[in-house]
Amino acid sequence: MKQSLINLLPPATIAAILAFWGLAPAAWVEAPWALPAVAVGTVVFVQALEFVFERHPGWRMNWTEFATDIFYYAFFFFVIGWLSDTLVNGPLMAMKEEWGIATPWLAELPFLVQAMIALFLFELGQYWMHRAMHNWTPLWLTHAPHHHLTQLNAMKGYIGNPIELFLISIGVIALLDLDLRALFASITVGSAIAIYAHANVSANPPIWYGFFFTTIRNHSLHHTATSYEDTRCNYGNSVIFWDRVFGTYKDGESAIVGQDDRKRLSIWEQWTFPLRPFLRKKAAPEG
Ligand SMILES: [Zn+2]
Ligand SMILES: [Zn+2]
C-alpha cells in the first residue's frame, strides 16, 4: 500500500465512525451493543494495523505486552467506566435535573457540530488535568506509570495507575443536552484518535488532522525518554489543538520512550507507584 494511503488511515477511521453514528438506524444507536461494538472494533482494527504497517521495530507487540494491554482495556471499560458513571456522571445528571440545568439549543445543532463541541469540551478538561499531572507531584505519582511504558501500542492509552485512569475519565459532558448519536460519536472518535496516538502504526496523517488532533508523532514526543522536562508538552489526549492554544505544543517524535532508567513496570508496580515515596522513607535507615 502506498504511504500516502496509509497516512489517510486515521482520518478515514474517524470519518467511518462519524458516518456510522450519523447514518445508523435509531434502533442500532439505542442498542446496548452499539457503543461497545464501535469501541472494541476500533481497537481491534488499529491493533491489527500494527502488524501490517509497523512504525518502530522496538515497539513490536509480544505476549507480555499484549496480555497487559488486554487486562487494562477490560479494566478501563468495566471498572473505571462503572466508577465514573457511579461517582461522576450519575451525580452530575441528578444535579442537572435538580438545578434545572438545560442546554436544549445544543441538541438542535447539526450532528457533527454537537459531536465536536462535546469532544473539544471534554478534551479541554483532559488537557488541564494532564498538565496538572505533570506539574504537581501527588498527581504526577499517579500519572508516572503511564510514562514508564517502554513501547507504544494501540491499547497503551488505557494503561496507568487506577487513580489516574479514574481522574482522566472525569468530565462535565453529562450536564449537557446532547443527541445520543453526537454523544457516542464524541466518545468513540476521541478514543479512536487516542488509540492511533499510541499505536505502532506508520501512518502520518495530513497536516489539517495533526493541527487539531493528537498524532503518534507528537504523543510519542510526550512519552520521550530523554528527560522529564522534555515530556512537558503535547498534553492533549486526542485534541492537540488545546496545546496550540495554551502554548504547550511542540513538534517532534521520539522512538525511545520511557521514564528515568526506562525500566518496564509490572501491573503491581504500576498500582503501588504512588506509595513509592512513603515506602522509600520507611526503607531508609533511621537517624
Ligand atoms: Zn503525560
Ligand atoms: Zn500516552
Overview of the molecule:
- This protein has 287 residues and is mostly helical.
- It contains 15 helices and no strands.
- Bound molecules: zinc ion (2 copies).
- Residues 130, 134, 143, 147, 222 line the site of one zinc ion.
Describe the secondary-structure layout.
Elements: H1 3-6, H2 9-23, H3 26-30, H4 34-52, H5 63-99, H6 104-108, H7 111-133, H8 137-147, H9 162-167, H10 180-198, H11 207-212, H12 216-222, H13 241-246, H14 267-272, H15 276-283
Helix pairs in contact: 2-10, 4-10, 7-10
The chain binds zinc ion (2 copies).
One zinc ion binds next to loops.
Fraction of residues in β-strands: under 5%
Low-pLDDT runs:
none
Please summarize the sheet with the most strands.
none
Q: Which secondary-structure class do the elements indicate?
A: mainly alpha
* Ligand names: zinc ion
In angstroms, what is the radius of gyration? 19 Å
Say how many strands there are: 0
- Global outline: globular
Characteristic key phrases:
single chain, 287 residues, mainly alpha, 15 helices, binds zinc ion
Describe what is shown at a glance.
The protein contains 15 helices and no strands. The chain has 287 residues and is an all-alpha fold.
